[in-house]
Amino acid sequence: SLVKGEKKKETTIPYSSFFNFINLLPDKDINLNIKDNNITIECDDYKTQIHTVSAKDFPVIPEIKEKGKVIINSDTLCEGLSQIIDIPSLSKVKPEISGVFISINKKEIKLVATDSYRLAEKIIFTKKDNQNLFSFIIPQKTAREVINILKDINKEIEIIFSDNQILFKVKMDKSSHSYIELTSKIIEGNYPNYESIIPRECSTQMVLSRDEFINKIKAASVFTGRINEVNLEINPNIGEMIIKSNNTDLGEYEAKIKGKAEGDSIKASFNYRFLLDGLSNIKSSEIIFESNGEKDPGVIKPVGKTDFLYIVMPIKN
């Protein structure tokens, strides 16, 4: 939509052609002009014309009947979503787990994602108390678009919700009426009671170097079988974790990691990909690994922080 004086011009253009061309232009003023069924783009020595279609054919953007809203920094939200965005899996049986669960509480915003085999919870602590307490599930695709469009702009986002829709709104310039708005439907249904599967107590806890753990899990992955299984053994008496994997065609692997450990000696097997997904989204140099053994979920979290939690189900023999 272009406005010049009192005259407003609207049209619809192919996104990919427009986006790809604009990205190639120099950092200078761009002149846009709509005439008939074309839009002309001029910048420095560049000039192009793109065919358009009538703006009347563009879907009507729904208006949100606001039930409540919360304001959060865009970089903070995008960083939080980035830590969990790859976990949801498309499911026709359980559409609720196909998206990201967002829960607005008085002093925090929780972002949760699961695929039934692992779960991640990211907590964003807010500076001001939230007046509207609510929760909803947004599609994974919507969460990705929020990240792609709003990352690195460092602005305040208004998250406005209604019964079945959500609006992410960012004012780009305080002195103008320039906004970015992203509207999405909310996934209907109730999100699983994920907090019930988070172990409240663990018999064994070990503090490890994040990078060393990642490197030795990656090495173990070379010798895993079709279910990507790696075996972890923790001996708190000597502060040691043993990582093992076995492939009948290739051979065996074993590595040791030293760390601070307490509790019982345990053994458990996990999908190495799921372990790496959790570890890669933790920013601290050391992590805490907790387990109750081969039948219960393993827990991975950063040392010294309470804002991120990763749960991974074991491979049961």
Short description:
It is built from 5 helices and 22 strands. With 317 residues, the chain is α+β, with helices and mostly antiparallel strands. Strands 10-7-8-9-22-21-20-14-18 form a 9-stranded antiparallel sheet.
Using brief descriptors, characterize the structure shown.
single chain, 317 residues, alpha+beta, nine-stranded antiparallel sheet, four-stranded antiparallel sheet, 22 strands, elongated
Task: Give a written overview of the molecule.
The protein is α+β, with helices and mostly antiparallel strands. Helix content is 16%, strand content 41%. The strands form 5 sheets. A 9-stranded antiparallel beta sheet has the order 10-7-8-9-22-21-20-14-18. The protein has a 4-stranded antiparallel beta sheet with strand order 6-11-12-13. A 4-stranded antiparallel beta sheet has the order 17-16-15-19. A hairpin with a 2-residue loop joins strand 1 and strand 2 (7-9). The model has no long low-confidence stretch (mean pLDDT 89).
Number of helices: 5
Strand ordering within the main sheet: 10-7-8-9-22-21-20-14-18
Q: How many strands in all?
A: 22
Mean pLDDT: 89
Helix content: 10-25%
By secondary-structure content and strand pairing, the structural class works out as alpha+beta
Radius of gyration: 25 Å
Q: State the end-to-end CA separation.
A: 60 Å
Main sheet makeup: 9 strands, antiparallel
How much of the sequence is in beta strands? 35-45%
SSE ordering: EEHEEEEHEEEEHEEEEHEEEEEHEEE
Shape call: elongated
Low-confidence stretches: none
